[in-house]
UniProtKB/TrEMBL annotation:
Domain Nucleoside phosphorylase stretches: 31-264
Cross-referenced CDD domains: UP_TbUP-like (cd00436)
Taxonomy, superkingdom: Bacteria
Catalytic activity: uridine + phosphate = alpha-D-ribose 1-phosphate + uracil
EC number(s) per entry: 2.4.2.3
Class in the EC hierarchy, top level: transferase
Family matches, as Pfam families: PNP_UDP_1 (PF01048)
UniProt xrefs under Gene3D superfamilies: Nucleoside phosphorylase domain (3.40.50.1580)
Name this protein carries in UniProt: Uridine phosphorylase
Amino acid sequence: MTYFSPTDLIINPDGSSYHLAIRPDQVTDQIILVGDPERVPKVSQYFDRIDVKIHKREFVSHFGELNGKRIGVISSGIGADNVEIVLNELDALVNIDFDTRLTKNLHKSLNLIRLGTSGSIQESIPVDTFLISEAAIGFDNLAQFYGFLGSNMLDEAALDLWAKTIQYPIPVYGAKASAKLINQFESIPLRGYTLTAPGFYAPQGRTVRMKSLLPNFLMDVSAYAFEGNLITNIEMETAAYYAFATSLGHEMISLNAILANRITHEFSTNPEGQMQKLIELALDSIA
Ligand SMILES: O=P(O)(O)O[C@H]1O[C@H](CO)[C@@H](O)[C@H]1O
Ligand SMILES: O=c1cc[nH]c(=O)[nH]1
C-alpha cells in the first residue's frame, strides 16, 4: 500500500478532492464527461433524480440515478491539462482511502464516456455525423511527464515514425478506446482515429492573426494514415483520456459530434441540436 502526502493528494477540509470538490461517497462508477460546464445540466436533465450538484471553477458535477443505476456527469473545461486533473482526482476518489491516504486493496474501474464536439479532417465525414474515437493521438506534452502504460497504448516506435512523416517536432503518444465500451455503442457505426490537439487555432490548422509555424500540419495529418488508419477528426481531450484510463485501469470511450468539416469548410447549422441528440443516444445505450 502506498501513502500519499497532503501536498501530493490535496484533500479539502470537507473531505473532497482539491479541484473537483467531489467527496468519495458522492462519486459514481458510471460517469459522462463533457467539456462545457453548461452541457452538464443538458445531460442530467434526463436523470430520474439528481442527488448532488457541485461547482468549482470549470468543474461542474451532477450525480444521481438513471433507470435504477447511479450515474454522474462532470465537465472538464477545455484541454488535455484539465483531463490530467479530472482523471487523477477521479481515480484517487475511488482507489485511495481519503481517511488513511493509502491505496485501497481492491482496485475499482470506472466507466467513463466523453461526449464532445469535434472537427472532421476527411471530406467523406460530413458535419452532423457522430463518430467514435477508436483511438486517439495526443500532440500535447503530457507524455513527457507520465510514462503512460496499459494494454490500450499505441506503439511508441510506430508513433515516432508517423510523427516524423508529418514533420511534427515533439514526440506524440496515443491510446485506444475500451473495447468493452465500443461494443456498448453499436448504434454509432462510424469509427476513427482522432487527433488531440494542444490548442484550437494553429494546432488545429487554423490561421487568424498569428500565423502557424506548421502551415501544412492539418493537410499532412489528414493525408498520412497511422498504421493504415486515416486520422478522421480533431479535438482537444480524447488522447489524454484514453492514455490515463488505460494506465489507471478504467474503461473509457469518446463519442464525437462532428460540427465542422475542415476540408469543405462547412460548419453545422444546428450545433446545440447535434449535441442534444448525442446526449440522448448515449444515455439510451447506457440505460
Ligand atoms: O465540446 P468539447 O467537449 O468542449 O470538445 C471540443 O470543443 C472544445 C473547443 O471548442 C475542445 O474542448 C474540443 O475538444
Ligand atoms: O474543429 C473543431 C470543432 C470542435 N472542437 C474542436 O476542437 N475543433
